[in-house]
Structure formats: C-alpha cells, structure tokens
Amino acid sequence: MARKGNKTGEWARQHINDPYVKKATSQGYRSRAVYKFKEIDDQDSLVKPGMVVIDLGSAPGGWSQYLARKFANKITLIAIDLLPMDPIDNVTFIQGDFQDEAVLAQIDELLDGRKIDLVISDMAPNITGVRSVDEAQYESLLDSVLYFCEQRLKRNSHLLVKLFEGSAAHYFRREIKSRYRSGVVRKPTASRPKSREFYFLAKNRIA
User: Fold this and answer.
1) Is there a smaller number of Cβ atoms within 10 Å at the N or the C end of the chain?
2) Mean pLDDT across the stretch 87-116?
C-alpha cells in the first residue's frame, strides 16, 4: 500500500509542476489537453468558420472550450460525453452515450439535415490493467467511432482520434485505409514523453 501511495504522490507532484497544467490554469482552460488539440489544429488547419464539429468524449471540455474561444458562434459545435460538463458559451452539450438512439436523435435534430465536417475524440476506455481486455475494449470503442462517422460525416471530412500504441491502434489504422484518403500521426509536445498516447488524423473521408 505504501508503494502505491508513493506512486500517487509522485504523480500529483508531477501534475502540479507540469508547465501545461500551470499554463492551462493561468489561461483559464479546464485541462492541459487543450494544448494537444491546439498544436494539431495549428499544424493541420483543422477547423474553419462555417464547419460542423462534434467533440466526442468532451468532458471536462478543454477542446470545446478552445474552439469556442477561437471561433465563438462561427462554427456549430456539439459536445458529447457520458459525464456531466459545465456549460460553455456557443457549445451545445449532450450528456449520454453517442451510440444511444436518443442521443443520435438529438444530434440529428440539432443538425437538421446538415452533415458533419469534423469529428474529434479524446476518448479512452476505463483501464483494467489487463492488456488484452483493455485493447479489446478500446478496439470496440474505436469501432463505434468509425460507425458514427460513416453515418454522419460528409465527403472529404476529417476525423481526429486519440490512440495508444498497441493492437487497437494497428486495427484502427488498418480500417482507416478503406475509408479515408490519407492519415497522419501527430504526437503533440503537450503529450507526456512517457505516454503511449498519440493522435491520428484521418483526412478526406471517401463517400
């Protein structure tokens, strides 16, 4: 137990001293993750005025908060999460599972026939610590994201997802090849060096 406590305390110290945590706090952002998305958006010019953007797994809201600050009401931004999220101006939040019919009906009502230009996802499954179980859960989650995009993304639209090195990531990148014209890996500087996470941008969906 003491060993676990030491690890928790070390993580807390590193978190408090993290320059991106300090920057997020000073700039009024909800999480350090905002700088991961900002770097990718700056590099790839992901979001433009007039776009419809869906933020899957949005809580606590850092990515949506960044987009709302940058574009205000110049984009249509819908954020979705199982967890509650404090309101953000110019962001429509739906609490629920993006796979549920009731949630999908709310999205369709809000869009009123419009297709989506960009789906962004910083989601990850709950970790059990059993690698095979975690990979299977993540692969299932990624499958759900792909299916959501197949139903609602317009032609030549983009998808940005968080991945972790492993079999689920290989599976996802393999599936992307028949659905999108190209894909690129992004490892933002705000991602912790020891983290297995990276981001994959699937570009130009094939209708």
Assistant:
1) N
2) 96
